[in-house]
Specification:
By secondary structure, this protein is of the alpha+beta class. The protein contains 6 helices and 10 strands, in the order αββαββαβαββααβββ. The protein has one domain. Helix 4 packs antiparallel against helix 6.
Length: 260
């Protein structure tokens, strides 16, 4: 369901298959024959109906739009991502309550996933009310162009921690692979504010990670989040906007959806 601001919020009874989930603003906008079933709109590859054009590289989707040949944009995936993000927030709360917790990087593995967590300062994380956040869900290629340099992940997070805007970085790699054998990842990043985090664009390691993304990922969903409450007390997480990237095309296909 959606709240008054149009953001997606979790509700009891939402049906989400966690096992599966754990698995341009366009130029000229064309028209396509519509195939409807309820709110379903059949949208051909790269051609959309009822969307807004805001420039040469991105398409703006409305809530009911489905891009048939880009199934990773289906809003049911967003609902599944939101379930995982809330599970990660629950783990943050459990770790915060552990008397032996320590600032810095921690890595562990259980029966579901391999986890990598950075909390530069638990004290600061607990003192921050209603921060912003980012949820990252990438669909890896089964045959990537080459290994994604592992140092880039830590380098970017460490830079954000030193600058003070990164409050927590939580990466999980699910043990169960996707049907095509590719590894599956999910990320929750808690930040002090979106304005401060804009400095990320100036980091050389981030630029390098972006450059390498098309060779490692088939597609990506990046959610802009709002956390209502203290991040270590299981806040309500709202998805306020989603950026979709499909690297099957050159240049990559991009779309945004507000409150998706």
């Amino acid at each position: 369901m959606r709240n008054e601001s149009g953001c997606l919020v979790p509700v009891d009874g939402d049906s989400v298959h966690t096992a599966i989930v754990a698995t341009g603003r366009g130029g000229a906008i064309g028209t396509t024959a519509e195939s409807r079933s309820g709110n379903y709109r059949g949208l051909s590859r790269g051609t959309l109906t009822n969307v807004a054009s805001h420039g040469p590289t991105e398409i703006e989707l409305i809530a009911e739009d489905i891009v048939v040949e880009r199934p990773f944009t289906d809003t049911r995936w967003t609902a599944g991502d939101l379930t995982i993000l809330n599970e990660l927030a629950a783990v943050l709360a459990e770790r915060a309550a552990d008397p032996s917790r320590e600032d810095g990087w921690r890595r562990w593995r259980d029966g579901v996933a391999e986890s990598l967590l950075l909390v530069p300062s638990w004290e600061r994380l607990e003192a921050t009310g209603s921060p912003a956040g980012v949820g990252f869900f990438g669909q890896l290629r089964p045959d990537p162009d080459g290994p994604f340099p592992p140092h880039l992940e830590r380098a970017v997070a460490d830079a954000g921690a030193r600058a003070g805007w990164l409050l927590a970085y939580f990466n999980v790699r699910f043990i169960e692979p996707a049907p095509d054998g590719a590894r599956q990842y999910g990320n929750l990043v808690v930040i002090s504010s979106r304005e401060e985090a804009r400095a990320l664009a100036e980091y050389a390691d981030h630029t390098e990670a972006v450059r390498r993304s098309p060779g490692a990922y088939r597609s990506i969903r990046i959610h802009r989040l709002a956390l209502d409450g203290i991040p270590t007390r299981r806040p309500v997480i709202r998805v306020c906007e989603t950026l979709y990237l499909d690297f099957a095309d050159t240049p990559s296909w991009r779309a945004v959806r507000s409150g998706s």
